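pinned: reference chain
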Amino acid sequence: MSRLLILLGFMGILLSHSAHTAEMVNVEYIHLLIEQKWGVSIPYNPSVTNPKVAANMEYLLGMVDITNKRLNGTATTDYLHSEYATKQAADTDASIDATNRLIKIESKFFVTTTNDTAEFEFTMSARGTFQIEWGDGTKDIIKRTNTTETAYRHTYATAGAHTIGIGGRATGYGTSYNAVAISFASNKNVAGISGSLGAVFATVGDGRVNGQQPRFYQTFYNCTNLAGDIPGDLFAGVSGVAVQYMFFCTFDGCSNLTSIPETLFAEISGAPAYHMFFGTFAGCSNLTSIPENLFAGISGAPASNMFGGTFAGCCNLTTIPANLFAGIKGAPATYMFQRTFEGCRSLTSIPEGLFAGIKGAPAGNMFYRTFFGCSNLTSIPENLFAGIFGAPADSMFSHTFYNCGKLTSIPEKLFGNISGMARTFMFGDMFYGCTSLAGLSARINGKYLYEIWPDANTEHVVGCYSGDTNLDDYTSIPAEWK
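pinned: its structure tokens
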């Protein structure tokens, strides 16, 4: 009905030409008019050999449809096949009216604010043309030709809850690791989100060239009033390969979020990238579960810091899916699982094959603080690190099970086949504060760690068994390991 009213109004412009002077326009005029108003450069129709040729209504309405598709990422209008797309010449009045009223950016992502919101602000660094509907009848068209991070703010006449709509289509992104497509970081007025950010900030091309993939670096970081569920299609449209820092701390500190949809990263595929999921859900203390296929599209050799702190501080998380990292296969990378489940104090067990695909020589800090402070963890799978073999690396198992006070035993085959010169803090504080441990201390091929490295000093292993006085061989453990 609204589209019909718009068209009727548009026809009113056409029928009123006799009442005043209007100049006929050419093809070039229509393209320049659209670019000036909407910041979109539409290529000439291939059949047009001379842009100075006169334009008719069919051409004008066709360009409106193309512009709407460009702005919204998908076809939203089909005026070209309406009864008004005639061979009648287009003039300035009809062109201006069509450009102003028939071209429209549809909102695809929505933010609901807290009920005391008097001012709202966010930042953006993506290129493109965007429309912001502030929720009080005010709309802004933002035309961006660069990727400089810029703040946009709005002041409301009356404080209250508002629904802000964001539409448009990004055409490019910054190339630095923290060039965030859009950010609401530390905005305490964000109460809820719906719709799709990926529909607005989608992958450009195949995403393989730097600047084609959006980064959601700290997008909702520390939005402590953001509550409820994450929309399942939030990143729909973000496809292809992951890039460095892609979802770095995206929801870090969103302590009121309650669930993660399995489809959240469904369109991301390919090899892991540096820091790609670092801290993504850190501090989301009300999350209780992780979808088994959350990272199903990610496959290939580990990358440094790929899952650093991803679920750190998710203190109500009760289980870890066995296949969560099933696609990760290859030699360890530095910091690959550092702090991944740190502080997940409601975890009671670790699935047997969680790191089954990790095979090769140790890397520095590879499992640094991975299960640090998981105070209700009662057991460790026997073959959790069975694929690790070769010479030690600095801090490779530093603080891995620090203060896991309910662990009762160390599996005999926990480690693979590690041997060689001791390295700095390689087992430092590994089982520190695991006061419920009983039975024998850690072994490799039947030999105690302290027998394999008899010359290890405090620089290498200090605090490894600190406080673990119930171990059967505790009195035999050298002081350097305590």
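why pinned: The chain has a mean pLDDT of 94. Helices lie at 2-15, 27-38, 57-72, 92-101, 449-452, 458-461.
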